[in-house]
Structures are given as structure tokens and as C-alpha cells.
Hints:
The chain is an all-alpha fold. The chain has a single domain (54-255), classed as MetI-like fold. 77% of the residues lie in helices and 0% in strands. It has helices at residues 2-25, 44-50, 53-86, 92-100, 107-121, 127-149, 152-163, 168-179, 181-197, 200-205, 212-220, 226-255. Helix 11 packs antiparallel against helix 12 (226-255). The longest helix is centred in the N-terminal third of the chain and has 34 residues, at 53-86.
Amino acid sequence: MRYLSWAYLLALFAFILLPVVTLVIFSFQDGRLPVPPFKGATLDWYREILTDRALMEALANSLIVALLSALVALTLGFLAASGLARVALPGSVVMRGLLIAPMTVSYLIIALGLLQMFNKVGIRPSLLATGIGHVVINLPLCFAILYAAIGEHQKSALKAARDLGAKEWQVLWFVAAPMLTPALAAAFFLAFTFSWDEFIIAFLLTRFDVTLPVEIWSMLRSGLSPATNAVGSLVFLVSVIVVVALELTLFRKGSK
């Protein structure tokens, strides 16, 4: 039974990681096509993409959009979670449902709705529109994580701080935020990762200044090449770094 468990575990990791490993290996392919057989290793494709101005601009755009949208979604989610966890309003259940509802809706539907709304109010497709779209999809995630992390002892501590004369912003900044640091880190890093990798909303809500996933899609229209594998490997590397930072942050906080 023990051997079957290990075999199942190895098969599971192979199923998950084999496509990524193949992507990374053939990003070093010394040839024009990222297909077997492997003809030898070269760094030329990484050198090519790192000197590609359009790719580097798209990379910078993705980082900016992911960082700012994650911060905005985290702030709004934190405020909403703190308010709804503290006070039981008549429509609290409905409010929580509405805040979490976008998690159940397809990104395509959200993007189309935002596109029509932006056309009505005069917001043109841009990085700003994409950032707003990413806030829409990441706010429910941040709210759900933070709301679930607020237990009775947090509520009691917040109430005690108010009874002692602390202002609302002091309660949130000096009491609530430190107590919820692991949850805040988890929400931020997940929101950043989802924004960094997101394609559909970025594709529909950008025009000239595009994010990296949209730029990769443009490259794929001309066919596969080791260059696209190299870009994909860099995207995967950034996602891994974010996940590792998340794990280290949570484990370090937990050990303390």
C-alpha cells in the first residue's frame, strides 16, 4: 500500500509538472522549433527575448498592473471584511454574497461587461481598464480570505481597542492589520499571481499598451518557437518566486 501511495504521488507530480518541464527544456533548444529531438542547449532565445523592446514593455506593464491591482483589491477586501465581520447588518449575508459573486462568473463575461460599461463612460481600452478588471476579479478572493481569517479573538481585540479610545483607522492599522498579516500576505500574493497570468480581461481591455500574456499570444499567432518557450519559462519563474515568497512569509509568521 505504501508503494502504491508513492507511485500515485509521483504520477500526480509528473502529470502536473511534465508540461512545465518540457516547456523549460525546449526553451534552450538550439533550433527553430521547440520539438523533439533536443538538439543541444543555447541561451540565444533568452538573449533574444530580453533584448526585445516590445516584450520588455509588456513585462513591465504586467508587473505594474499586477502590483497596483493587487494592492487595491487587498485594501478594498480588507476594509470590506473588517466591516462585515465587525457589524451584523440586516443585509450582511446578501452583501457577502454580492462581494463573492464575481468568483463564480467567467472572466469572459466579466470582460465583456466591463468593456461595454467602459465604452458608455468613455474609458478607452488601456492598462487602467485592465487594472480595474483585475481588481474586480481579485477583490472577491481577497475578501473571502480575510473574512475567513477574522475569528472571535480578532473581533474581541478590535472591540477592546475601540473601547479604549482608538480611532477607526488606528484600530485597522495597528490592531487588525498585524493580526491578519498571514492572511493579508496570502491574499496579496494570490491576487498578484492571478493578475500576472490573466489573459482574457487583458486581451479585451487593452489596445496598444498590452500585458505579457497578450504579447505572448501575439507571438504564438506566428507559430511555436523556442522564444515563446523562453517567455513562458520566465512567466513561470515569476509565479514560482511569488509562491515561494508566500510560503516563506506564512511559515515564518507561523513559527513565530
